[in-house]
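Budget justification aside, the reviewers requested a transparent look at the raw inputs and outputs of the sequence design task funded under Objective 1. We therefore reproduce one unedited record. The lines immediately below are the structure tokens for a 166-residue chain.
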């Protein structure tokens, strides 16, 4: 599964008031999987996508055997959730590893501003936003990868976050 593919899932199967919604069956098993992935199975859980394809859950894990255990644990935790809807894919990193890498890139002083940092959609690395000069700098990207413990970093031009007023 690629980062780009996860950004362009198929059309939502359910429409409520003209707005696409996830299928209830995929949502249910996805929630159970996410609970286990952020808990007892954080050592293998990378990421997941609902209705990719429609009615299924794409689950990225760093090990298929442990990933199957995660799905079984999710089904046990929610007996009404259908584990047969989950498709396993191998990811390079766990969500926990990527979260630590995000924290690490904000640690050292950098040559360019860092606006945001987050795991990539497919758990293959982290994505940071910076100004145009930073986005064009290979040495900046290499410095961020070094800070992230050699986890790949995608650097893109973005805008500083502005706090909302309300």
């Amino acid at each position: 599964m690629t980062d780009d593919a996860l950004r362009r899932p198929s059309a939502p199967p359910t429409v409520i008031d003209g707005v696409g919604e996830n299928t209830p069956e995929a949502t249910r098993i996805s929630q159970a999987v996410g609970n286990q992935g952020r808990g007892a199975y954080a050592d293998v859980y990378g990421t997941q996508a609902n209705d990719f394809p429609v009615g299924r859950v794409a689950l990225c894990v760093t090990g298929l055997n442990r990933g199957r255990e995660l799905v079984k644990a999710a089904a046990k935790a929610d007996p009404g959730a259908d584990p047969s809807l989950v498709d396993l894919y191998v990811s390079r990193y766990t969500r926990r590893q990527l979260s630590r890498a995000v924290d690490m890139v904000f640690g050292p002083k950098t040559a360019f501003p860092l606006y945001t940092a987050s795991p990539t959609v497919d758990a293959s690395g982290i994505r940071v936003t910076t100004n145009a000069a930073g986005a064009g700098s290979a040495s900046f990207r290499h410095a961020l990868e070094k800070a992230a413990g050699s986890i790949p970093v995608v650097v893109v031009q973005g805008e500083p976050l502005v706090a909302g007023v309300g």
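The CA atoms of residues 1 and 57 lie 12 Å apart. The radius of gyration is 18 Å. Computational costs for records of this kind are itemized in the attached budget.
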